[in-house]
Every structure is written in structure tokens, then in C-alpha cells.
Amino acid sequence: MLKTFYHGTMRRLTIGFGTLFNNIHIQKKDASGDIQLDYKVPFAYGPKEKFLSRINQNNTITGNETDVEITLPRISFAMGGLTYDTTRKMNTMNRNQIVNAANPSRVDWQYEKVPYNLEYNLSVMVKNTDDGLQIVEQILPYFTPDFNITLKDNPDMGFSTDIPISLTSVNHQDDYEGDFESRRVLVWDFTFVARMNLYPPTGERGIIRKVIVQSYPQTDDTSPENRNTAKPGKELVRIVIVPSPLNSDADDDYDYTTTQTDLFV
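Above: the chain sequence. Below: its structure as C-alpha cells.
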């Protein structure tokens, strides 16, 4: 019974998150403070275990020179857990709607968004302490502990959302226990949580052209048998509400015309 749809919300968020860290540089300076080397840190999607495994496959200084080793420093990130956020829940039956781009006499609509928290794990792998400290200091000042990104996360409705990304933990790992010929890898692990929204499928409907309201007179006697002076099913007043002009589209500037008819005096 589930409807097939895909807004690409998590994919867009993952791209937006990764863009935050794809322009980090490491600089090497001489004794006078002049920059001798400016190195852009490679950045890729994937768990840190994948890159550490590649390092360990050829992890000695005396290895075969024809073997290509992974370069350090390097930054990687991957999605973690996804949890429902009850603190941001809104009425599920609320509807959002916009004018249909292809047919202005119809509107596109969605039920209320559903709040979720998506976790990201980011790892910084370096071979010396100073490289790691340079990278860490280029990340931490932006998260206090939140950093907002604006994301067009609901393309069907054309909405853009400010998504807070929180830094929840930072850990440093140095498990070097090898000999002098083994390659050393220092790892900084960051955990982030993005407070995102997921959206239900989009529906389409026409404009309501007429609303009819039937009214019954009330008495001061509120007893069940005398609540209405008219018999059930006998309308005394009919109110008809229609847009003016009647052929208005959803994006037109229109008013409403109300007509009241007394059926019984």
C-alpha cells in the first residue's frame, strides 16, 4: 500500500555536509614564518576503517616502491544512525500546498514533514601531530555547537530549510605501538548530528470552487430533544461560498462571494 516516491533529502543533506569540509588546507612554514607548502587535504566519503585498511596493506618504509600507498593527511566521513525526533513533531494531518507549476488551476500538497536526526561520523587521519591540530582548529570554531546550512530539501514543494548540524563529540586516537619502520597514523574522530526533516509523497488536487454550509436555528433549551426547533435533515439557512471571479487560478488575486438563502421563515 506504500506509494513509491523519492525526494532525495538525505542525499542532498549528505552532499551539503561534505561540502563543509572539502576545502581544508595544511600549511608548512619555514623559520621566518613564510609559507613553503600549502596542501589541500584529500576528502572522501567512506568509513575510516576502509582507509586505515589500505594503509596497513603497505605500512612499512621499506615497502616496494612500486606500490602506491594512501596519502596522509586525509579526511573521510560516513552516515551513521537515524533516529526519530519527538521534540520537533508537529500535527501529522497539517498540509502544505503550492500552485502546480504546470497547471495553475491545481495545487500540489503534502502532509506535515517528519523530523529525524541523522548522525555523521567524520575522521581526520594524519601522520604527525601538527597536521592534525591544524585541521582540528579549522573545524571546531564553526560549531558552537551548531552550524546551520540552508538546504533545498523538498524539491517537489520548492521549500528550503535551515538545518542545524551539531558537533556532539571529538575524540583523539593514537594507538602507535609498532617499530621504527612502521607507519604511524593519528586519528581524530568527530560525531555530528543533523536535525533534518523527511517529507511524505506529494499529492495533487483541484481548487475548491464551491462550499455549501447548512445551518439550523438553536434554542435556549439545550436538552437533547429540544436542541433544534427544526426536524433533523430540514435545513433552514443555506450559505454558498464561491471564489470571485469563479474561474480564478490558484495563484490569482481573488476574493470570495457569499450567498445566504433562508429556506424557512
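DSSP finds three helices and 14 strands in the chain.
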